[in-house]
Write a structure and sequence with these properties.
Layout lengths: L4 E4 L6 E2 L1 H15 L6 H4 L7 H8 L4 H19 L1 E2 L3 H10 L3 E5 L4 H11 L7 E3 L12 H9 L7 E5 L2 H10 L2 E5 L16 E3 L2 H9 L1
Parallel strand pairs: 1-4, 1-6, 4-5, 6-7, 7-8
Antiparallel strand pairs: 2-3
Organism: Vagococcus lutrae LBD1
GO molecular function: phosphoglycolate phosphatase activity
Protein name: Pyrophosphatase PpaX
């Protein structure tokens, strides 16, 4: 099946920010809970909005913890962030094929744009949506539906691509095709009970699936 509208998550899908996110969480958590969390423990924190994660861990300090996270994350951002293999080449192929491409992320817009610009890939996207653009983040369908509307897409020819259960749940609830990328830290089993329509192993596989 060929897709015309292509929506990407950012972290863990296009950009390898796994170490940046994990180390940012550990920087904060080691301050409030010394020695309690390891890098393996915080992998599951990648996906939901920051405030939601910290509010669950320490409600009284959630706002303070978000600020500390962002301070560390922004200071270290450019040293950590990089593209996953084949991402830019894949985006070029999708644009050459006439696809409408968007980013749908939970990151603050200014941080999302910083990431896109530092990686040199903002120019490939017709729409960029960050956490400031909607009231309800993934897994709610609102972010995907806004992306679909902005790109004037059709439900039957739209695919939402991500590495987290939140991406898959948002796509499934929005009524578009969901695609899981298996090149990041999350495993297919981590998505349960949410099931993606398609699983791809690398960017070449992704492009072929979308174009063919």
């Amino acid at each position: 099946m060929s897709f015309q509208t292509v929506l990407f998550d950012f972290d863990g899908t296009l950009a390898d920010t796994n170490d940046l996110i994990s180390d940012s969480y550990l920087y904060v958590l080691d301050h409030y809970f010394p020695g309690r969390y390891s890098k393996k423990d915080v992998i599951s924190f990648n996906g939901p909005p920051l405030y939601d994660v910290f509010h669950q861990l320490y409600p009284e300090k959630a706002t303070e913890m978000v600020a500390m996270y962002r301070e560390f994350n922004l200071a270290q951002h450019d040293a950590y962030i990089r593209l996953f293999p084949g991402v830019e080449q894949g985006l070029i192929r999708l644009k050459e094929a006439g696809k409408n491409i968007g980013v749908v992320s939970t990151k603050q817009n200014k941080t999302l744009y910083r990431g896109l610009n530092s990686l040199g890939i903002e120019k490939y996207f017709d729409v960029v949506l960050g956490g400031d653009d909607y009231e309800r983040a993934k897994p709610h369908p609102e972010p995907v539906l806004i992306g679909l509307e902005r790109l004037k897409g059709e439900f039957t020819s739209t695919v939402m691509i991500g590495d987290n259960w939140q991406d898959i749940a948002s796509a499934n609830q929005a009524g578009v095709t969901s695609m899981f990328v298996s090149w990041s830290e999350k495993k297919l089993s981590d998505l349960s009970p949410h099931e993606p329509d398609i699983v791809v192993k690398d960017m070449k596989d992704l492009v072929q699936t979308i174009i063919d």
